[in-house]
Amino acid sequence: MFFRASVRVHSLRLQKRRFASAASGFRIPVINFSKFRAAQSDAEKKETAKEVVSAFKHSGFIYVSNHGIPENTVSAVFRKSAEFFKMPDKVKAQLAWEDPRSNRGYVQIGRERVTQSTDVAEISALREKAPDCKESMEIGRDWDSEWKNQWPKESDVPGFQKTMLEFFQTCHDLHVEMMRSVALGLDLSEDFFDRKIDQQCHNLRLLSYPPVKRVFLDGKGQARAGAHSDYGTLTLLFQDSVGGLEVMDPQTGVFVPATPIPGTIVINVGDLLARWSNDVLRSTLHRVVAPAKMISSTETITPVRQSIAFFSNPNFDTVIECLPNCGKEARYPPVNTENYIVGRLAATYM
């Protein structure tokens, strides 16, 4: 199961100690979001909001506990995700991702190569040399008049569509609350972002990392998912117990494990929120590596890993430009959300 209630308290304390005592001073704090959700005054809300923004300024990443999404909800999504990826490849291929403007459908192993580069030729060379060892299923808002989700047959994965659509809405609702905390933490009005994110132009990504012999991952630049930053406002990441996510310490360039903490969600700043804040908030590089176990005296294999990422975006017609209170001179020119995200996706996929 994704969560193990019996070890939650012990694990939470262990992880707090681990990150607080990192040699470089880099840490990913655990923030109790119930204090924001149940606050009786603006002052109480702002206390948590300042914690969130402070962490986003320094590391760009937080663990969020007491976020309001039930454990059984997350577990159900993980089960349905696993059922989807167990389908035959030829069945999944019928749902193949086709267009960066849609960003919906099944992505086979090796098709995506995440990287900070925006050069198509360079990304193509990276993909040939060191493809990402993962497959994914991309889901967007289901009411879009132009772009449609690609759903498996109900008989192939019973309840899949219903489960994912409900979870999409649940994640959007949390995203709204998190962005309200960001607004307050930046001394903006709490509802500053509400009308800029209400069209739900997000992407729910189901991720499956199949077992791979470690020898195939030892080449230069090879990883389950290469070092990259995310594109939008905030990413909500739900991890299983395997781990593998690593976050780069911006001060030292060293990658630090973001070890799974039961009951929490990892949330990080994306590129557009960093641009919006004039880099007051940090979009931090991260990657997925491959924990390995011995299968013989000479060979190791990586275990199966699952994760679920909710990539939150501004409305596609939103122009991202320097926010009030984030510096007198803008570091970036204004950019349209859709043009930015579609451009990054077009370069990332073949």
Automatic annotation (TrEMBL):
Q: Which UniProt keywords apply?
A: Iron, Metal-binding, Oxidoreductase
Matching entries from InterPro entries are given as: DIOX_N (IPR026992), IPNS-like_FE2OG_OXY (IPR044861), IPNS-like_sf (IPR027443), Iron_ascorbate_oxido_reductase (IPR050231), Oxoglu/Fe-dep_dioxygenase_dom (IPR005123)
What Gene Ontology molecular-function terms does this entry list? metal ion binding; oxidoreductase activity
Q: Which residues form the Fe2OG dioxygenase domain?
A: 200-314
Identify the stretch annotated as signal peptide in this record.
none
The record ties this protein, via Pfam families, to: 2OG-FeII_Oxy, DIOX_N
Known PANTHER family for this protein?
A: 2-OXOGLUTARATE (2OG) AND FE(II)-DEPENDENT OXYGENASE SUPERFAMILY PROTEIN-RELATED
The family line of this record is: Belongs to the iron/ascorbate-dependent oxidoreductase family.
Q: What is this protein called?
A: Fe2OG dioxygenase domain-containing protein
Write down the species.
Lentinula aciculospora
